[in-house]
Amino acid sequence: MQRYIDEVDPLVVDRAAGARFFDVDGRSYLDANSSWWVSTLGHNHPRLVAALARQAERLCHVSLAGVTHEGAAKLGEELVAVAPPGLTKVFFSDDGSTAVEVALKLALQMWHNEGRPARRRFVALDGAFHGETIGAASLGGVEVFRKPFAGVLLECIHVPTPEGDAPSDAGYARAFAALEKLLAEGSDTIAAVVLEPLVQGATGMRMYDAAYLRHARALCDRYDVLLVIDEVFTGYGRTGTMWASERAGITPDLMCCAKGFSGGMFPMAATLATRRVFDAFLGAPERAFYYGHSFCGNPLGAAIAREVLAIFREEEILVKAQPKAARITKTFASMGEIPGVSRARSLGMIGALDLSKGAGYLGELGWRVYAEARRRGAYLRPLGDVVYVAPPLTITDDDLDALLGIVEESVRAALR
């Protein structure tokens, strides 16, 4: 695998626009993964650039410590307006990892404040990835990210990810039963169940049915355990609805959002909470949530994040993405028939396929596809031997057709 990385010089990017970036030699590349899923509205969206410039002329920074500013207050209101019903409180942070870290700290301190400090374990799915900070890494089921820090991590129990094409399959029954057994026997020591809704990104775009989210919500209600939904990747329209949890019709107790939150323009994130969680911190000073980074809720990020929401509303981003998602689904279903492809799948603006382990393993085939795609003008970074696309929701039809064509050509060339 390493030789496919070493043989290619790193891309040195000079500028970007829409679904493309340009290297220092002027060659353009289609950005197949929205630069690690953040540029949901494409690179350098003119409205976001203008919002940043306007805000920079007026107020670049003020800490949210005994002071506030209009942008943060309005952003909080606008987030609550589009969030799943019942999420009414907002805590700002810097990125996906810190949004998850906030959720974990809120869960732990909530139970402490309520007189149940034994509730300090977490539950996550096999193959989970929730970030790089120590708390977020504690949830990880991808050992390469977790193992070096094993001795200092929070305690997390991993349960099976639902497997199969439908909730009636045996893999779902096993997953349902495992989670129920764990909560029934140990809920008095569990702080929260933390899930990537519908799609586990970093472990290889592993997808599961919304029925599992409904099952998890019902169990958390029954055993009085918090449900944390990590919408860092799946939120802001990636799965076809504003939030992946919408497809299940559920509201979590805590929801984490980042990446598309600020359209790839600025480090900014938020953790949303229900009133029940918020109320646990009221009262004596020692019950307060003493947490926050220097740039939390900063004016520049707030201005951009508000403009992102305005673009979604005014430019009908979700509606216009639907035919593009259908094209991704059709193309990946067709590629599933290519000899050497073991499985193809799609959801919203995500398409993924697994390359057969018999033809190569440990990512060797994936990096062959990367090299083939780069030669053809696309940045198509694999997840091991999983090849996927998660382009900007605003990608033009012509660019999407070109990207899907390059993916198919590159997969066929790599498998020859």
Q: Can you walk me through this structure?
A:
The chain starts with a helix and ends with a helix. The chain has helices spanning 2-6, 34-37, 46-58, 70-82, 96-113, 134-138, 143-146, 170-186, 210-223, 275-279, 299-314, 317-335, 364-376, 397-415; strands at 13-17, 20-23, 28-31, 87-93, 121-125, 156-159, 190-195, 199-200, 206-207, 226-230, 254-257, 269-274, 341-347, 350-355, 378-379, 386-389. With 416 residues, it is an alpha/beta fold. The chain contains 14 helices and 16 strands. It folds into 2 domains: 1-31 and 316-415, Alpha-Beta Complex (Aspartate Aminotransferase, domain 1); 49-314, Aspartate Aminotransferase, domain 2. A 7-stranded mixed β-sheet has the order 4-12-11-10-7-5-6, sandwiched between helices. A 4-stranded mixed β-sheet has the order 1-2-3-15. Keywords: Aminotransferase, Biotin biosynthesis, Cytoplasm, Pyridoxal phosphate, S-adenosyl-L-methionine, Transferase. One of its GO terms (biological process) is biotin biosynthetic process. It catalyses: (8S)-8-amino-7-oxononanoate + S-adenosyl-L-methionine = S-adenosyl-4-methylsulfanyl-2-oxobutanoate + (7R,8S)-7,8-diammoniononanoate.
Q: Tell me the overall shape.
A: globular
Order of helices and strands: HEEEHHHEHEHHEHEEEHEEEHHHEEHEEH
CATH superfamily descriptor of the largest domain = Type I PLP-dependent aspartate aminotransferase-like (Major domain)
Strand content: 15-25%
What's the CATH first level of the largest domain? Alpha Beta
Q: What can be said about the biggest beta sheet? A: 7 strands, mixed
Q: Pick out the low-confidence regions.
A: none
Widest sheet: strand order? 4-12-11-10-7-5-6
Assign a percent range to the helix content: 25-40%
Total domains, how many?
2
| Alpha carbon gap, first and last residue | 17 Å
Number of helices: 14
Instruction: Please give the radius of gyration in angstroms.
Output: 21 Å
Mean pLDDT rating:
94
Alpha-beta content class: alpha/beta
Proper CATH architecture of the largest domain: 3-Layer(aba) Sandwich
Say what the CATH topology of the largest domain is: Aspartate Aminotransferase, domain 2
- Could you give the count of β-strands? 16
Enzyme class: transferase
Catalytic activity: (8S)-8-amino-7-oxononanoate + S-adenosyl-L-methionine = S-adenosyl-4-methylsulfanyl-2-oxobutanoate + (7R,8S)-7,8-diammoniononanoate
Binding site for substrate: 36, 259, 292, 381
Subunit structure: Homodimer.
